[in-house]
Structure formats: structure tokens, C-alpha cells
Write a structure and sequence with these properties.
Elements: E1 2-11, E2 14-24, E3 29-33, H1 40-47, E4 65-68, E5 71-72, H2 78-88, E6 89-92, H3 104-114, H4 119-132, H5 148-160, E7 166-170, H6 178-195, E8 198-202, H7 206-211, E9 214-219, E10 222-228, H8 235-250, H9 256-278, H10 281-303
Parallel strand pairs: 3-8, 3-9, 6-7, 7-8
Antiparallel strand pairs: 1-2, 1-4, 4-5, 9-10
The protein binds adenosine-5'-diphosphate and magnesium ion.
């Protein structure tokens, strides 16, 4: 699910990540712990594609690798990255970062609207998730009309709306009272059981960290301990499900732009051939480029037909 290799991060001369390697499986709940300043947030932001690892050290070139859902995310351009993030990743931050002008329901729907999903379908799903999180009576409330725990659950619903395979959370319960924090943690586990999501959670909360399947401890920009706390029995089966999912996702869709290209290509090719065979010198001059243009469009149309 997540493969990270040789992740470094420099801020000026300061090296805050010193070569992190990590492999996280689908369906795992991984807690990242460590003292303030250890590099936890920096690592989480890089794993979540919100930031990039450094490509240059003080005296050297750094080669890193980061794969999420088998996608090499370091080589995606900004647009591809935003799309990937929107479709595959959910974020939960310490401060919920809900938009104050919008209701709980609207806040939850926003990532799905960005993904151009139909309004009706999105609203129905958002209500379902809010209901699952025990917030059905709060859908029309704005963030300042909700308690801290409720706000954070709305933020969780927002992270889930596009059904991401992985959720990154940075001290999600840092701002909550003990009871709400406990509820939130239990929620993460029931979500994993229900929807098979992977969670990477930075936390100071030892109870949450010890409930996780795996605890990674960071200090000074490196992972100093990687402790398995539970055998995640379902992993093999989850990985298989993930493979299935990939296969389903990979089912090619026909690209309409390519169809236009093919039609245009055929038209240009036919016009070009007619020009070359039957035409005068002048139509020969236009016929040959038309043939080339037609052939090029045909080729490019067919190669991009399935995506
Ligand atoms: N944008 C930045 N510019 C300069 N230094 C930064 C920046 N972000 C983080 N740092 C530094 O990187 C180190 C690691 O920070 P961070 O990843 O936030 O640690 P943690 O989340 O473990 O507390 C800290 O020393 C911090 O001051
Ligand atoms: Mg932090």
C-alpha cells in the first residue's frame, strides 16, 4: 500500500528526515510516535504527498521512492498529484480545518464535489457517513455550533467521502477531551474493519499508539523502533481484496477525446489521399500534410483510446 525508500528532508542545512524507509500494508493501522521535533509531521506530509522529499543533500543527489496504491507519486505532475490525492488519500489534522461558512454536510461533500461527483449521490453518501459517525442530527450545523469531538468527526467524514484507501492523521485527538479521543480511536478501528482502510496516525496518545497494529518510533529524523503490536490476521486477505480492487479500477474506460482524434484522423487521411491521388500540384502540397496529420491523430487516438 505504501512503500517509501530513502526519504530525506532538508530545511536549509537542517536535515529533519535522515533516510526513512517504510512499508505499510493495506488495512494496517500504524501509529507514529516520538518527541516533538522528531520529524513526524514532515514524514506524514511527505507520505501524504502534501510535501516532497529533498532531491539534493548538502553534497549529494538523493534518490528516493514513494509508492501509494502502486502509484509512483514522486513522478506525478501537480495536476496528477492533486487528482491522485483527492481520489486516494484522506487527511485528518489536529485542528479539524473545517470551513466555518459551510454546514457539516457541505464540509463533508467538498472533496467529492472537487472530484466532480454528482451532487445528489454525494449528499446521500455524506449523510450516510455522518450517520455512521453518530452525527445525523448535526448535518445542518456549522462548525462553531459543534463540540470539538463533533467537529473532529465531521473532519473524519470529510476524509472518508471519496472512499480513500489510506488516511493520514496528524495528532487527530490532540485537541480532544479523553472521552472524545477514545471515541475517535474506536472509530478508526471500526472504519478499518468496515471499509478496510489503512491508517497512518501521528499521535502523542499512548493508548491509541498501543492499540495500533504497529508502532513506529521516530527520533531526530529516523525511525528508531518498528514494533508490531498485533498480527493483522486479515492482511493477506486484505491484500488480495486490494489486488481485486486494482483490477477493477484498471478496467479501461474509453477516452472520448481519442475517439474524436480517430474520427478527425480518418477524415484528414481520406481527404489527404484524395488530394494526393486525384489532385493538382496544389492539392498534392496540402494532401501530404493532411495524410501525415491524419496518420498521427489516428495513431495517438488509438494509443490513448483506453485509459
Ligand atoms: N517549514 C519548515 N521550515 C523549517 N524547519 C521546519 C519546517 N517544518 C518543520 N521544521 C523543523 O523540522 C523539524 C521536524 O518538525 P516536525 O516534522 O514538525 O516534527 P514533529 O511533528 O515530530 O514535532 C523541527 O525541528 C522543525 O522545527
Ligand atoms: Mg507534528
Amino acid at each position: 500500500m505504501i512503500i517509501a525508500k530513502n526519504i530525506h528532508k532538508y530545511y536549509g542545512d537542517l536535515e529533519v528526515l535522515k533516510g526513512v524507509d517504510l512499508h505499510i500494508k493495506q488495512g494496517e493501522i500504524v501509529a507514529i510516535v516520538g518527541p516533538s521535533g522528531a520529524g513526524k509531521t514532515t514524514l506524514l506530509q511527505i507520505l501524504g504527498t502534501l510535501d516532497k522529499p529533498s532531491t539534493k543533500g548538502l553534497n549529494s543527489i538523493i534518490k528516493s521512492k514513494l509508492e501509494l496504491n502502486r502509484q509512483d507519486v514522486l513522478n506525478l505532475n501537480d495536476r496528477g498529484l492533486s487528482k491522485f490525492r483527492n481520489e486516494h488519500i484522506g487527511f485528518i489534522f489536529q485542528f479539524h480545518q473545517l470551513l466555518p461558512e459551510f454546514t457539516a454536510l457541505e464540509n463533508v461533500c467538498i472533496p467529492a464535489f472537487i472530484a466532480n461527483r454528482p451532487k445528489k449521490e454525494v449528499e446521500i453518501e455524506a449523510k450516510k457517513i455522518l450517520d455512521f459517525l453518530g452525527l445525523s442530527h448535526r448535518v445542518d450545523h456549522k462548525p462553531n455550533e459543534l463540540s470539538g469531538g463533533e467537529q473532529q468527526r465531521v473532519a473524519v467524514a470529510r476524509a472518508l467521502i471519496n472512499n480513500p484507501k489510506v488516511i493520514f492523521a496528524d495528532e487527530p485527538s490532540g485537541n480532544l477531551d479523553t472521552a472524545s479521543a477514545k471515541n475517535l480511536h474506536e472509530l478508526f478501528f471500526s472504519l478499518r474493519d468496515e471499509f478496510n482502510q489503512t491508517f497512518v496516525i501521528v499521535t502523542h496518545n499512548t493508548e491509541l499508539a498501543n492499540m495500533a497494529d504497529r508502532k513506529l518510533e521516530m527520533l531526530d529524523g529516523v525511525i528508531i523502533a518498528d514494533e508490531s503490536l498485533a498480527v493483522h490476521e486479515n492482511n493477506e486477505h486484505l491484500e488480495q481484496e486490494f489486488e481485486q480492487d486494482l483490477i477493477t479500477k484498471k478496467k479501461p474506460k474509453v477516452n472520448t477525446k481519442s475517439i474524436f482524434k480517430i474520427i478527425g484522423g480518418i477524415a484528414a487521411l481520406v481527404a489527404g489521399i484524395i488530394g494526393v491521388i486525384f489532385g493538382s500540384k496544389l492539392s498534392l502540397i496540402t494532401g501530404i500534410p493532411l495524410c501525415i496529420l491524419g496518420a498521427y491523430n489516428l495513431f495517438s487516438g488509438f494509443t490513448n483510446l483506453k485509459r
